[in-house]
Structure formats: structure tokens, C-alpha cells
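Predict structure. Chain length: 698.
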Amino acid sequence: MAPRPALSLCLLLAAGCSPKDPQPTPIATASVADPAPVLPASASVPLPSASVDTVSHASAPYLAGPSVLTSGGAVDGAALRKRHVDRIKADTSPVTVLRGTGPLDLGKRLCEAVVPRRPAETPVLLKPNLCGFDSIKDPDKHHGDDGVHGRGTDVDFTRGVVQCLKARGHSKITIAEGCGISHQHWQNVAHLTGYDVMAREEGVGLVAMDDDGVFDVQGEQPGKPLAITGIGASHVPTLLVPKVLAEHLDHGLFLSLPKIKAHRYAVVSLGIKGMQGTVMLSDQAPAYKQKWRMHRELGKYLDLRKGKDEDGGAVTPEESRALYVASIMTFAERMADVLEIEAPDAVLAEGAPAMGGDGFQVLRPSAELVAIGGTNPVLVDRVGAAFLGLWNQPALARELGGHATSPLIEVAAKRFKLDLKAPAITGDGAALLDGPRPVHFKGMAPFAFDWDPPGAAPPAAYVFPSAVAATAALEAVAPVAPSVPAGSRPEVHAAALGEETITLDGRAREPAWARATAVSWDSDYAGKATGISTRVRLLWGKGGLYALFELSGAGLHTDTSQPIEVERKALYKEDCVEMFLTPNPARPKHYYEIELGPFGHFFDIDVDRETGKQNTGWSSAPTIATRRDPAAHTATIEVRLAAPEILAMLAPGARLPLGLYRIEGLPDQRFLAWSPPRTAKPNFHVPEAFGTLVLDPG
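Prediction complete.
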């Protein structure tokens, strides 16, 4: 296939917040810790999965409460605290854990499972995590790392939630985040992550909750800070609330969409820590740049890390660590106050993948793609921490003065009088918490630990998407073909063959083929309809994976002088069909490419874009049969793939990323795609655009 465009990004800007005033800079990264001892098998305490049908708040009747916006433009903090404390204390609804093959599907399904039902006219505010990173980097100089991806909420997860809400009839949807950075920097982040393009495509708003008149001096000013009454005795007496959030707390639906990740300071960053994005403080102006004051005590610890106190005397490691833990506890009390005042109606946490490490520079992706959500933010955080192996964690307790999980979770649970021992858990991913979880964590204080349960494969390195190429592709999107709705990726089901047999002759006369649901398309790589139709049916059984391609509009442009018994390395330059099959959804950049020609020619290769390696010696063990009708311009390609690696992935209910493509026509080739990658130039090597192969049970 055509090579991916070689584009680069040179945006070396800083983000984040620091205890140094007035200009915010990133929190200093901890030095590399000595290797921690291997954790015992009891390092994680499993969570029980719910075995009873529990009624979720997602279906509870909705009764609008009194307004919390006062006539003077302030917000009634006392009323908000009472409302949220009462609700969260009483909320014992289950936390939903879902498994999936990608963020879009997970976002849709989790939204449908946990988001409370509201009248269609209710405005909805979505707050993803867009700002949990240190700085934007040049990916060409950092092994593909742009400094942003892997740290925040995947744009397709948020898109999935948006599409779920739109399907319910909601038309007033706004995505908002507060970063404490310049307006230009905010625009760069929105563009780099694809949120600006997604918001335009879905027809929803995208605003910054950090604008107090510096940038948005006209219009509705969604980031305008509003005063909060009744919080003078709290740990955050100078807290202000962004106008857009206040309005949704008053008469809308507020949903938090954090990334499931470890955090070098807070231990985990989920629903509670994610509220930092809403924080504005009146201590100094502009208010949105004062977020760092929420953990200002950390500055003293960072100074003491140099080995001296304010008087120049020596500081023991014990004294330094005690100060570090004390600063986290103070931060936790403040974040609990923020949660009391601004609690979301539901938390939908994206883990596709979830991220261990430190949340900034060290990224350790989970083997599974998950989403975790519910209407009680503290319980969601508790389950999310368990998924990361950071709940009831003895190794963590040894480093944090007895705190075996994030102090933010502990303090919030105490505030809301919640029992965290055994929350109810539901969903098809609940069983993931039945046993010990992998633990991969690096703290800001100099300690770290990595442990995987016996028999578990260690996590692969995170694969950074080519952000610039993705952005260019999105900007070059052609009108979407009706068969592939914008933002969705299709599925194809392979029927179970059972004890039946298939005779490979290109005729497909066996009854099993009639049970296989066909998918067809005529779209090209950009999503544009071409009128050249391709139909595919799939079967699976103990003998392998079977595919039947039926081609119309076939020109049969093939060099038939070449033998069909050996591989054709340049087959893609002629007419052919292609399958890209991913054996492990947790490693989407590793896939097998199988090319098949209408006369029986073939080429197969093992591609690993994560490592940059390709293995042309790999064989899919194909058995191929073809038939052609030149007068009718049709062809049939029937194949069985029986490589050991393919046989190993065949299991009832398996969901595997799959790409189906066709190259047709010489000298002007047409590049056709079942799930269009929508790249600026023809390029099938875009795993993010693969559809899904579902292996139906027998």
C-alpha cells in the first residue's frame, strides 16, 4: 500500500501548573527510583463482581431541584453541597465495568449503561481530561510521543458518549475543560487531540473553562468565573466556578469523562482528581491560572528534595516523605470540597487503554480496553484504582505512611460516609477484578514498583498515534458514504462452522455460507462512494478462518504469467483484495496483512508498527480458490487461513480488529475500503480505522 505521509509537528509549548508563581510551569518529574522489590501475589485485593440485578440511577425518575444561581450572579455553594452530599451518601448503585475493542464503542455503551435519563431538552456538559500532560513535544524527536496522547481522554470515547446522548434526543451538548494555559495553547491541544474536528463533525460546543474575560470578552463567556457563597469554612474559600459549569449544575446534566490512569502525585487520576480542571481561585488574577494553589504545599517538598530545609539544615528522608504525604492529604481535603460543590451526575472513565506509570512521562498501558462508570464518583474511583492495582496496595502503603490507595479516595469516602470495602460491580468486565491486577506505578516521591500476576504477559509499550497524520486525515475527510456513518466503525460477524466442512472451489455452495451475514461496500479510502461493489462473508472453525470475497466491477488486471504457488510481493500494484487482521486488540499496531488476487496469487506479512518491524517470512497458511467471469466483470475469491497464530485467536465471542480492502483498476487504481481510514492519500495501514470481526458462537 501507499506509505503513510511523513509529517512532523514542532510545537514545544509547556502546560500544567506548578507551585511557582506567577507563570505556571510543569510539576517537576521525580528522579528515577531504585527498583522496588517484587510484589507478592497478594499485592492486589480482588473486587467481587455483582451477582444480583441492581437498579442503576441511570433509570431513576428525574425531579429538578431548586435553582442554585442567585439573583446577584453568585452560586449557592451551601445548597450545592447539601444536594451533592445527600445524593452521593445515598448512592449505592453499582459501578459498571465494560470491556471492548475500542474507545468509540466503549463510550457509547458506558453512556447508555450509567448516564441518568433526562428530558431531551436538558443541556449536557461533558468534561474530558485534555490537560493532564507536561508539555507538547515534537514526536519526531521523542519516538512518536507528542507529549499529549496517552495522558488524556481519547477523543473517540467522548465522541461515543456524544452519539449516545444525541440518540436520546439531546441537542444542547457542550464539551468543556479548564487547563490554566494560554488561549493559543488551548487551541493547539484541542487540535492535536482531534477534539476540535470531532466537535465540528458532531455539532457540539467546545469551550475552555479557564477564560475569565482575557480571551472571550464578548458573547456568552462560558469560562467566566462566578463567586460561590457558603464555602468560607471549607478548605477552598477562594474557589470560583466557571459560568458554563454553574449553569449545568443549576439546570443541566454534568458528566465527567476522565482518563483511567495512575498519577505521580495523586496516585490515580479519575473522577475526583479530574475536578481540578474546573478549579478557579480568586487568590490572584487571572483566576484560571491559580490551579497550582490547590497543591501549593508541594512546593516546599520539592525544595526539600534538594536536601536542605529553609534554615539550611539537613533533612532526613523520613521528614521529607512525611511532608510529601501531608501535602497530598491537604490536596485531598481541597479536592473533596470541590467534589461536594461541583459533583458530576455521572463519571464515565476511559481506559482504552488504562494507563499505569506516572501519568505523564512513564506510560504503561493495560492489556485490556475498558470503560468504568457510575453515578457515585467516589465508588467509580475506588473501582478504577483497583483496576490499576492501586487499591488496598501494601507496597503503596509502605511508601505513603499507611495509605494503601489514593488519599483523594480515602478523604472523599470519609466525607460522604461511604463503605469502600465491596462496592457492587456489574458489566462484562467485572470479572477482570476477580483476581490480582498488574501494578505499574511511579510516584513523584522517589519510589516505583512494577508487578504482574503470575502468568500475565507484561504490558507492551504504549503506541503513540501519529497525531499530525491523524489531524491531516481528519481535515481531508471526503463526504462519508452512507454505509459508513461518520465516527462509527463497522462490524462483520463470522458464523461458526461447527462440524461442517467447506470445499474450497470458489463456488460457495455449502449451507454454512448462507448462514454467514455478508457485508458490502463501494466506498474508497476517503469514504467516497465509487459504484464498485465488494461483498464479503466469513466463517470460522477448527480448520481456520474462511473468507469469501465477491467482486463486481472487476477488471481482472493481473499478470497471469506469474506463478500462484509463490508469494507475490508486489501484488498490491495489481487488482487484489486485502485483509488486515489484529490478533491482540490490546496491541492494535500489530496485525497480519493478507493480499489475495482474483487468479489465486497471494502475499502475506506480519506487520508490527509499534516496533517498526515487518516479517515477510510469516505465512497465513492460505488455501485459495478463485472463479472469474470476465464478461460480467465479476470474480470470487474463497480462502481458508490456517496459520497457528490465526487458529489461536479463534474463540466464540472474540472481537478482533479487522480491515477489509480492495485495489481495483489499472493504470488508475481505485483504493476501496470497508472501513475507510479517510487519510489524505491512499493508506490502508491505519489500525485506528479498522472495523471489528465478531466470532459468533456455534
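Summary: The longest strand covers residues 529-541.
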